[in-house]
Amino acid sequence: MAVYHLTTPLSEEDVRKLRAGDEVYLSGIIYxxxxxxxxxxxxxxxKGEELPFPLEGSVIYYVGPAPAPPGKPIGSAGPxxxxxxxxxxxxxxxxxxxxxIGKGERGPEVVEAMKKYGAVYFAATGGAAALIAKSIVSAxxxxxxxxxxxxxxxxxxxxxxxxxxxxxxxxxxxREGVEKYKRA
Amino acid sequence: xxxxxxxxxxxxxxxxxxxxxYYIPEDVRQRIIEMREKEESPVAKAILDQILKNHxxxxxxxxxxxxxxxxxxxxxxxxQDVRIVGGDIKEAISKGVAKGYTEGYLRxxxxxxxxxxxxxxGDNTPPVIWFDIVPGDKLKITVAPKGGGxxxxxxxxxxxxxxxxxxxxKFVIESVVSAGGNPCPPVIVGVGVGGTFEKCxxxxxxxxxxxxxxxxxxxxxxELEMEILEEINKSGVGPMGLGGRTTALEVFIEQFPLHxxxxxxxxxxxxxxxxxxxxxx
Lengths: 184, 281
Prior knowledge:
With 184 residues, chain A is α/β, with parallel strands linked by helices.
C-alpha cells in the first residue's frame, strides 16, 4: 500500500502507477457531478456540444453537497453511491476523464473502459462529509444550477483523502479486501 | 385534556431536524469505537478513524454528519389525553421540516414527482409521518433522517413458510453482504418479520430507532439478532465495503403475528450515520 500526493489534471502515467489499496491525497481542481448531470454531459457529447469543463485528465467527484453555511466555501460533502453513474462513465472515460471519486463497487463496463483508456476509481469515506469539506478550498457552480445540489461544481481541493478502490489493471479492493477478511 | 399548540410542534421538529443531522447518537459512536479496537484491516481502521473524526468536526462546526441529510421520517406518539390546538398537525410538522432544513443548511433531497423525477420541493418537504395514539397526556416526536444510499439497498421478501428460520436468516445476511459498500457500512440492520407486506417493512424501519445493545425482549429473537450480527461480521465486507471485520454495528429484529399462508420479511439498512433524535412535549 503506497501513499501518493497527486495534482490534477491527471496524466495516464499518474493513473497507471496506482494500485488498488493505495492511499492518495488529491490537490488541484476536481468537478462534481451526480447521475442527472452525467446524463446531460453524455447527451452533450452525443450532440457534439462543448462541455462545461475540459474532460482531458479530469477527476469527477460524485457528490451532492449540503448548502454552504455562512463563511464556508461548501457544506458537508461526502461521496454518493457510484453504480448510478456506471451507464455514463465509459463514455466520459473514452473522452479523457482519468479519475472518479465515489463509494461502492463499479460494474464491468466501467472496469473495461478504465483498463482500455487508463482511468482510476477512488473511494472516499461515505458519511465523513464534514471532514471531507475541510479539504475543499473553494467551490463554484459552473453548470446546470437548476439541478441544485446536483449541479456541476468546480472544486479546488487540497489533500483530499481517497483510497484507490479499483485500478486500471482490474485490481479491486471490493473483491480482494473482502476475500482477505472473510472468515468461515 | 392537555392542550399543545401546533407552533410548539413546528419549533420542536425544526430543532430535531438540525440536531439529528449534526450530532451522532452517543451509543452509535461508542459502538464504532469498540469495533475499531478489534478491527484487523489497516484500511478499515483508517476509515473508522475518519468516521469518528467526522463526528467531532460535524458537532463542532454544526455541519451535517453526512451531506445526504435524508428524507425526514417523523414518528409522532400522541397521548390520548392530548388535544392539538392552533392548526393542522401535519402542516405543523411539514413546516418544521422546511424550517429545519432551510435554517440548518441541510440538503434538500426530495423530488415531488417520482416518475418525472422533478421538481425538487426546495425545502425537503414533505416528510414521511407516522402517527400512533398511546395512553397519557404527552406528545413524543422522533425525527429520523433517512439517507438514500442505504435505503436503496433495503429489501422486502415474501418468503415461503417452508423456508423456515434458516431461510429467514439467509435472506437477512445476504441482503447485507450483497449490498457490499453501497449502504455505507458499518450498517445498522433493521429487520421486520411477520405482519402484512407493509407492516413488515414498517417494522424493519422502526427497528432502526432502537438503542445499540438493546436486545429484543423475546430471548429467541434476541439470540437470533446476535447470531446474525456475528455471521454478517464474518463476511469480510468491512467499512465502505473495502474489506474488514466491521460490517454491521447492530441487528434489530421486530416481529408481529402473521397469516397462516404467509412469511413476510424485510431488511431496512441504515448507514453508520444512524441519525435520530426525539423530544417529549
